[in-house]
Amino acid sequence: MAKSATATKRPRRERGSINPDDIIAGAFELAEQVSIDNLSMPLLGKHLGVGVTSIYWYFRKKDDLLNAMTDRALREYVFATPYVEAADWRETLANHARAMRKTFLGSPILCDLILIRSALSPRAVRAGEFEVEKAIASLVEAGLSTENAFDTYSAMSVHVRGSVVLQRLYEKNVAANEHAHQREDAIIGNAESTPLLARVSAEGHRIGAADERNFEFGLECILDHAAALIEEGKKPAAAKARRKR
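User: That's the sequence. What structure does it adopt?
Assistant: Structure tokens below.
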């Protein structure tokens, strides 16, 4: 059931005792209770124990507040998903993808602010650019061209974000419809008209579901393609070495 847009009222603050950081922190607290969609300035004022005009003094409209929240969310996300080198490039990239997904799935607020509200924002694109540079350099060192390394990382990022957004939209849909009783990715097909669909669906495979099985399969496909490109790139070097003998 969807959370009602209510806020826990605090003792009223003295005039002038609130600052932008307090407001942003309180907005995150409130959003955890009522969601980003239901966050409002009057509710936030009640939550913080201040008059709503005290909030408008710093943030003239909700969109300004959400921009400030997004900036903080982006910093939190980058801090939570560092690119940490593992035994080899494949394990490193796979671990990074799983960490990204886990971070977003564990924080609906981060997902709503970064992936849904600010998906095409330049700020979201620039977030973690040093980590992306490190990842591309690691893939180039493994044998990919710079272009293929960039495309591989980009494909992984799109795969992670798409998986998370689909799951988040499903959760929003269920929360908005208290009578929902069947997943959109429920068992499909029947033994007579679509026997293949019926069999794999009964075994737990889901079309379009943002579940672990589909995520891991897609991730492995991206990694396999990158590995094939690396092997393909080794052939000219090997042939050149043979000609020099």
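The two ends are 72 Å apart (CA to CA).
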